[in-house]
Amino acid sequence: MLTINLKDLSPVEIQSYLNSAIAPRPICFASTVGKDGSINLSPFSYFNLFSVNPPVCVFSPSRRVRDNTTKHTLENLREVPECTINIVNYDMVQQVSLASVEYGKGVNEFIKAGFTMLPSDLVKPPRVAESPVQLECVVKDIICLGAGAGAGNLVIAEIKLMHINEAVLDANNKIDQLKMEHVARLGGDWYCRVTPDNLFIVAKPNKNMGIGVDAISFAIRNSKILTGNNLGQLGNVEVLPNDGEISAYAQSPEIKELLDATIGDSQTREVQLHLKAKELLDAGRVEEAWKVLLIV
Questions:
Q1: Which is nearest to 58 in space by CA: 148, 158, 182, 198?
Q2: What sign does the dihedral 131-133-137-140 (CA atoms) show?
Q3: How far is 28 from 137, CA to CA, in rounded Å?
Q4: In 3D, which of 152, 156, 37, 139 has the Cα closest to residue 83?
Q5: Which helix (H) or strand (E) holds 191?
Q6: For 153, left (φ over 0), alpha (ψ -120 to 50), or beta?
Q7: Cβ distance 126 to 120 under 8 Å?
Q8: I need a surface site. Which of 59, 60, 158, 257 has the fewest CB within 10 A?
Q9: Burial class (CB in 10 A: 0-12, 13-18, 19+), 36
């Protein structure tokens, strides 16, 4: 394993390593205004949700690594502590990238990047009409993390209003993750796109206390077939199936055929049972997987 002392690296090198490692990062597409009324629109990938009561997100217009200058977004926020944060999806990502060009102060990136300005209800900066979710925010604080090139400035923004395009809602007026098609930043020029084929569900931790991986038998825990993810699924159950449930499952046609085919060959039987359990776990059928693994 390569071990790096960050004190030995330049800010550019640190940025390259960390941006590639700490990813994917959601994109804050922030609209701000200066005291003269000039509008700025710029994306930031040092961004996330940090609280829901009060609802607060944080993003960082860092000092430029190249020449240690500050960005117009930061200058505007110090003059008018309000912003809109517009969530970025795949349909707008190329225009968002264009808006990151370092145009001169006073140049409106809405116009340069071809976005539509929507008036906000509570704050001065406009919203991006093309964004599926738009947040109107009041800036509560700006925390400077340093004066050197690459130093961050944490903008603590309290969300006051949220606007959601009905096209990304489900029948219950909740945001449908399958419809959002988020994009996120990686390192260098790389982005990622969240599409239905790469979405998956992880069951929430058992509220009644899962048994934990340490409670799984040695033979299962050290399986050459089951993965760490599989063990995490198995350890999230509250109780194991009882003998009656295991015996009944063993009589199902598919399992009975497997058992009959491996009579007298315990090693092959264990491999086949673990393969079947993995198939079930990958399909989210954890209880059935446990029944397979506990067959003796």
A1: 158
A2: negative
A3: 12
A4: 139
A5: strand 191-193
A6: beta
A7: yes
A8: 257
A9: exposed
| Helix pair angle (253-261, 243-250), 10° resolution | 80
Residue 31 and residue 159: Cα distance in Å, rounded?
A: 14
Residues in the chain: 296
Tell me whether residue 84 is exposed, middle or buried, using C-beta atoms within 10 angstroms of its C-beta: 0 to 12, 13 to 18, 19 or more. buried
Tokens of 269: 């039987």
Q: Quickly tell me which residue has 């009959």 as its tokens.
A: 260
> Residue 26: what are its φ and ψ, rounded to 5°?
-65, 160
- Return the structure tokens found at 174: 């909740």
What lies within 8 Å, CB to CB, of 239 at 6+ separation is: 211
Q: State what percent of residues in the chain have pLDDT above 70.
A: 100
Q: Which of 82-86, 207-211, 239-243 has the lowest mean pLDDT?
A: 207-211
> What is each CA distance from 131 to 163, 256, 283, 287, in whole angstroms?
10, 54, 34, 41
Comparing 76-90, 203-217, 218-232, 281-295, which segment has the lowest mean pLDDT? 203-217
Bridge partners of 175? 169
pLDDT tens-digit profile of 182-197? 999 999 999 999 999 9
Q: What pLDDT, on the 0 to 100 scale, is given for residue 240?
A: 94
